[in-house]
From TrEMBL:
Transmembrane segments: none annotated. This is MULE transposase domain-containing protein. It holds the Pfam family MULE. It comes from the Eukaryota. Residues 96-165 form the MULE transposase domain.
Amino acid sequence: MIVATLKESCKNIRVYARYNICQRARRGVLKEKKGFYIDEYVNLWGYAVELISSNPGSTVSIQVHRDNDGKAIFYRLYACLAGLKQGWEEGYKPFIVFDGCFLNSVCKRELLAVVGRDGNNQMFPVGWAVEGEGKQSWKWFLENLMKHQLSIDLRPTSRVPTRADNNMAKTSNGWLLDARCNSIITMLEDIRILKNIEQSTHSRLIWNGDGRFE
C-alpha cells in the first residue's frame, strides 16, 4: 500500500493523519512483514548465487563501493534470466525500448529496464538493473546487455517511432508500479515472476483470412 492510499483510507474513516505519520506507519508495517531493508542488502550476494544456481546461464552482476573502513556499500546490480536470454534469441522482434523509473522505497535509486516484443506482439522484459540514472549508468547497462545477450545491431542511428516508444515505456512503467515500492530483493523477485512474462508465453489465435487460424 502506498502512502497516498493509506492517507486516503484515513480520510474515509474520518481520521486525520499527516503524510509523515502515514509514511512512518507504512515503513513500520513493511519492516514487520518483510524484515529490515538493510538485511536484504546483506543478502544480495546470496540471492545472486541462488538465481544463477537455480537458473543456469543467467547473468547477475553486483558492484559495490568501499568506504574508508573497507566496508562494501551497494552501488548497482544487473540481472537477466537465462529463459529471457533464450526467448530473446529465438523469438524476438528487432524492436526494444529503454526505460527507467524511480524506486519508492528506502533504496533511492532508479530501475533501468529493456523491454522488447515477442512473437505474439506481447511485452517481453529482456534485462533490468538497479542504478542511479545517468550517462555512465546507461553505458554500463548497455555494455552488459551487449556482452551477455543482445545480438542485434544497436547502432546510434537506430530508432523507433515516438508513439510506439512512448506506449512501450508507459506499459513497462505500469507493471513496475507495485514492485518498485518494495525492498530490493523483494522488488527483484516481483519483477522475476511478473505475470506479464507468464502471459506472454501463451499462444494467440489469429484469423489469417484463408479459412483457418494460425
